[in-house]
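Hallway conversation turned thread

IA: we were arguing at lunch whether anyone had actually written out Ribbon-helix-helix protein CopG domain-containing protein end to end. Turns out nobody had. So, for the record, here is the sequence (95 residues) and right after it the structure tokens. Reply here if something looks off.
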Amino acid sequence: MPKTDMKNLHVPLPQPLYQRLRAEAKRENRPATVLVREAIDLWLAEQYRASVHDEIACYARKVAGTSDDLDPDLEAASVEHVVDAWENSERVSDP
């Protein structure tokens, strides 16, 4: 199995955080470095998702009400779909 190119990063931690990390590593019987690597990866992924969300929201605000806004045919179809789904759920819930 090829060895992955790894880089080291020194991260000073406050004592309480360090103790919590060590306790969790012991509880999971996993190295603290693995837990930290996973935590950083999850945090970076969340930052990326938030960034994409913000960019989409910004674009949506800019184009709202313009010709680049939602296609009228697509909007009508989605409204029809929601109404149909609601009516079907009403029929199912009626005794």
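OS: looked through it. The chain has one domain: 15-93.
IA: good, adding that to the notes. Residues 15-93 form one domain.
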